[in-house]
Amino acid sequence: MWLLASFYFRADVRGLENIPAEGPVLIVGNHSGGNVTPDTLVFSLAFNTYFGVERRFYQLAHNLVMLMPQARIANLRKYGTVAASLENSHKALDSGAALLVYPGGDYEVHRPSWDSARVDWAGRKGWIRLALEKNVPVVPLVALGGQETALFLSRGGRLARLLRLDKMFRLKVLPISIAIPWGLNIGDFLGHWPLPAKLTMKALQPIDLRKEFGRNPDHDEVYESVLGRMQATLDSMAAERLLPVVG
């Protein structure tokens, strides 16, 4: 995995010193790469190298991702990946762990490749309620490059609604992409082999929501402020990039 992260994706992970070394913390990141998300792999490796495996670290993933053959083969649970649910979120933070969540979920991870440098959480604010309820700091995590690992064409939101996937599987999208080895890839249910795009990630300064936004923070204000900081960082990272995939 280190060879994959270091040489194939040429990973550059910055700002790990901004993550508290102990105690519960909610890490909120932008999500990229379809159902194969190399940024999660890269960050998990970097986190465990920096803090040591003694520092508890969990990542939330969609239930269907956990059921994919690749997830079972790789035994993602062994590395701290658990199904996304409020119960699992509470258990992770109550254990004193760092918890990585992707508010944009399947909506953001399947955005078109030309929106690679855009944070798009579709207005989802559940992470704010969670951070306030558990009284934990929030660390924004910005990633760039994952959306260049395939040519993502469309989320396929209308198609998902037509097939009632939102009702049956909580799927808001049925993505369409061009990816190895399938060529035209609809759904990405079997995953794909990612292109060797350069991955750059940066953890920002931790945010104490009540200290910064007041005792009863306005969720809309928090959302806009955190996304604004993340988007500004993502814009700066994108400006360093010469070419897609190449970096």
Give a summary of the structure in a few sentences.
It contains eleven helices and ten strands. With 247 residues, it is of the alpha/beta class.
Question: Could you explain the architecture of this structure?
Answer:
- This protein is α/β, with parallel strands linked by helices and 247 residues long.
- It has a single domain (2-154, 197-235), classed as Glycerol-3-phosphate (1)-acyltransferase.
- The protein has helices at 2-8, 38-51, 63-67, 69-74, 86-94, 105-109, 126-134, 157-162, 165-169, 209-213, 219-239; strands at 12-14, 25-29, 57-61, 81-83, 98-101, 138-144, 151-154, 176-179, 183-186, 200-203.
- The radius of gyration is 17 Å and the shape is globular.
- The mean pLDDT is 91.
Kindly name the structural category. alpha/beta
Biggest sheet: strand arrangement: 1-10-6-2-5-3-4
Q: How many domains?
A: 1
Number of helices: 11
Multimerization status = single chain
**CATH evolutionary superfamily:** Glycerol-3-phosphate (1)-acyltransferase
Distance between the termini: 20 Å
Topology (elements, then pairings):
Layout: H1 2-8, E1 12-14, E2 25-29, H2 38-51, E3 57-61, H3 63-67, H4 69-74, E4 81-83, H5 86-94, E5 98-101, H6 105-109, H7 126-134, E6 138-144, E7 151-154, H8 157-162, H9 165-169, E8 176-179, E9 183-186, E10 200-203, H10 209-213, H11 219-239
Distinctive features:
10 strands, 247 residues, alpha/beta, three-stranded antiparallel sheet, single chain, Glycerol-3-phosphate (1)-acyltransferase, seven-stranded mixed sheet
